[in-house]
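Possible race condition, two jobs.
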Amino acid sequence: MSNRLAGSTSPYLQQHADNPVDWYEWGDEAFAEARRRDVPLLVSVGYASCHWCHVMAHESFSDPQVAAVMNEHFVNIKVDREERPDVDAVYMAATQATTGAGGWPMTVFATPDGEPFYCGTYYPPEPVTGMVSFGQVLDAVHDAWVTQRPDVESNAHLLRGALAAAPPVAPPAGFDTSPATLEAVTEAARSELARAYDSHHGGFGGAPKFPPSMVLEWLLRRAARVHDEVALEMAEHTLTAMASGGMADQVGGGFSRYSVDASWTVPHFEKMLEDNALLLRVYTHWWRATGAPLALHVVEGTARWLLRALRTPQGAFASSLDADTDGVEGLTYVWTPAQLVEVLGEEDGRWAAEVFGVTEQGTFEHGTSVLQLRHPPGEHAAERLAAVRRRLLKARRARPQPARDDKVVAAWNGLAIAALADAGAILGRRTWVEAALRAAVVLDTVHLRTEPTGPGGEPELRVLRTSRDGVAGDSPGVLPDYAGVAEGFLALYSATDDEHWFVRAGELLETVEAHFSDGTGGYWDTADDRTDPALARLQRPREVADGPAPSGPSATAGVLVTLGALTGSLRHRQSAEAALAAPLGLAPRIPRASGWALAVAEALLDGPREVAVIGRPQDPATGELAQTARRSTAPGAVLAVGDPERIEVLGTHVPLLADRTMLEGLASAYVCRGFVCDRPTTEPAMLARALGGGPPDAGAR
């Protein structure tokens, strides 16, 4: 018999619908039941592609005896951390504060009001060295609740106080975002990053290694702005190593979440939308900067994988593919030499084993190997390699496949829209831009709501974080959702010239300023009118360090810079600079946690450049000027393309296009900084030189 989770919109929660545990979703019903029964809450937090979440579910939550203890002594709540990042953030802070570590599955015991008093992560079904069993934890917590209630409640009160009193991450005293300070911060961060650089394997630090997408974006921008060869070398080496190792899917495209080793050989096999969106964009920008053939191969493979594996019937993008297939990690992806011969025949099978590093000993488990391409066979064998990849992919599709979490997350779809629109525009792949547009329509029509929540009931644009099958859930959007969707919409505007997306991005940022600002230049992760009451008693979430994706403040700063450049708004630029203060305060010490803030700082230091192209849409010269601008490596450069006849009749919402005219009736480009513009040009070569870097033209008008 299914439990309450059967009706959830979260695939992760639905995976637990057949557990004998009497699960609740996070909400008032669970809290009221715990108060009625006077028992603690047991809050279990995980996500669909989490390997150890599946392990604990199989070992403990599917066990009728364990479930009976859970049901008798606790009110049990299952939380999808991707659907409720606010719950995850606050309880993870409690877990880290009490245990010194964290991870998923996260197991938190709390009072009926949601105040945590005992926290942990994965617990095995039987005691093992250094770990108590889950059953022992259940018995001990129940016993303490019954026999030592004052001590338990005192611990909960102390932990609540510690969480509430935890100071926010703040920049050093006297920190500012003047150009001189930004130069000093970026230089110090680059020096610190170089110390962590793995010159042998690429990447930074040791195992496990996660793809440092935001840091690589910063390094590419820095290399373009100040011709930093060391920054370019670190970026190129890392991008090459990731693309050549086992974390990259050498047959199907896309990337796994991380490498368990320092050499990018063996991945943790789940494949996430947010990771692949960010990687698609940074590999596009690597190709733009250098023309590297490997970069183009990765871009094409990753985009194809996104469209093939993650696109939903509605046109948005699912969240992830599981690490496990039928309970076995990596089953879909790994090979033996014999399996290659079986699929490809003796000659091609042996050749593929040599090319992809598949050995009898194996690089993974049980004699299997993860495919790598450390030494590509060269142009003479390119057709053979492509044919082998196609045959292996066809054979792999006949294998059991990992489960897909088809929940649509607003923030991650915003990143995917930005990546596909950007890559499609730069490389001239119209189908990618069209895919970005379809996903944006889903966000616009399913996830966005105009509500009378402004002063005096004025309408404001609000975001719902998740949807499934075209139906939105009720989880409110958090700061990364607003910033991520705005980022995607602005990239889509630049790729399509459709001002609707520009307007919607601006509306989202107005809501951010009204409901997420802390009044001192920083931002909370939850809106002032949408913060969960149970969490508000503990801690209003705020994260300034990047994780797998840009932090909320850094992402917000990025879109504020872009919007400010398109509008000439000093208010937006000043808000961006203020938002950067806290994450940039971390950068000299922890640059790997500040990559996106550093990338935004590079844009500020370069201007950013503002390019307005005025020309008739049907004129090839208009497209050539626009494409020249898109191919520029100027950090954070913005592009607006306008049809003078349409603007004359209907006007424009984009101030960068206002009052621009064609030079002698020809398509013309204006390059500006702070809305101070060079003389317009009709020549793509002149435009390319104007975007080539260096200080502003002293004779600008």
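Job #2 (started ~2 s after job #1):
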Amino acid sequence: MSISTATSGPTDRRAATLVMACLGVFIAYLPITTVAASLPAIQAALSSSTAQLSWVQDAFVLPMAALILTAGVFGDVHGRKKVFQAGLAFCAIGAAVALCAQSVQVLWIGQAVSGLGAAALLPTTLALISHAVPDFRERGKFIGLWATSLMASLAVGSLIAGVILDHAAWRWIYLLPIPVSLIALALSAPLLSDSRAPHGRRLDWPGQITAALAITAAVYGVIEGGAGSFTNAKVLVALATSAISAVAFVLAERRSDSPMLDLRLFRSPAFTATTLVAMITFLGLIGFFFVLSLYFGMVQQLDTLQAGFRLLMVTLAALVVGAPVGRLMHRVSARVLITGGLLVVAASLLSLTALDATTPFASVAWRLALLGLGMGTVMTPMTATAVASVPYQLAGMAAAGNNAFRQVGGALGPAVLGALLTTRALHTLPEHLADAGLTGATQQRIVSAADADGLGAVAQLNLGADTSRALDALGSAFLDGLHLCLIVAAVLTLIAALCSVILLRRPRETKSTVVRPKASAAATSAKDANGADHGRSVSPAETVTASDGA
């Protein structure tokens, strides 16, 4: 079935569509590793606590998670090209705000605007590919290139940050996205064809409000609970609000005539599996980048470029393996690829628990490369299976839903692992200080500073001859927290692998019943005039064929 509007271009524009989609996802994900690699510099320049640093990343990821489904609906209603272009504009504006930020609060605003732009880009890039390549088998190759562009963005981000911070202040990491976004915006006008959903979808405001409230309240509760106490009244209120909003979201979507996320998608075991895998793996991946960048800066005392080269091991390995995995999808089942990749990720995370303050580059590099190989094996089949596991007319919603849950995991990653890191490090810090011979008032001063202003605040204290011993004790406490984060991330990855084993099945054709609106007059006229299926609407409860898992 070809889904198009009068403005849709011919099929020979598929290459241009692919290029623009890959450029769009590259721009959307660029801030993740550029900011992650720059966190120590941002913390030092803005005197930020660990909780405030968590919000620097989450201010970007939260809008992506909360608004990605609504952006998909906007594309269905108003045209995906328009939403794609709006996303590029927001990315440029957000980067400009962050570039001029003089406080961490203004930086949050810039990150949030950029996150809004990324929320618009992610579902539209996949929807544009799905529109240009209706055949799900051929579409897998295109999605493989899309996933490769995503990983390429993560790969070069840390290096870009390192080069910039070697010669300029942290704020200049936000310069590059501005011209790149504006150039892409200019190129999209002649190169992209517009498309939209064939039926009259409309915005689902109850679903949007409850989803945004549930995600934001959950992340706020986790960050503030980790920075203070989970028994604090405002933390309990936030977590309760998140739970109530999540229930309200489910009820709103079940009753909506035009749901933002059709819950019937979860009738597909393959879609459910890939959604859970996406959320859990990104929780671990983005959270891992967050704590690892702090390890390189606070424990190993590396500059941003040196840290960037180490982070590059993850994304470069994923980038290398991405294209071959895309070709393997026609020979090896998604169940084997995804499960195998997750097991490799879990093994690499557990191997990283051997890190200490003096671990050399070579010892870190192979572990990070192994992690990247596992992630690269998971990414392409995970995304392609989510789209192919539902009927064609729901492919756009499936892509947006998979991306939304992926970003929920990405938003919770720094919050959850940052809270674990801080809690564990603060718990063991007094013991390490005592082992270093720092007791009494000096110990109390150090612990109070770390508790009030974050672990990084210890480096700002004037302790005289005790400074070196205090920093060594802080590094040991940080390593305790890091090792706990790695173990938790590995356990989560094994849970994701279990979901893959249980829910993913071998590819087969199944019958999926989907209720659709009756044919519109315009669609009927189009069919009568052209004698073709373009613009064809389907009668209610028509049975369509969909892949149950790749």
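The longest strand covers residues 509-513.
Logs attached separately.
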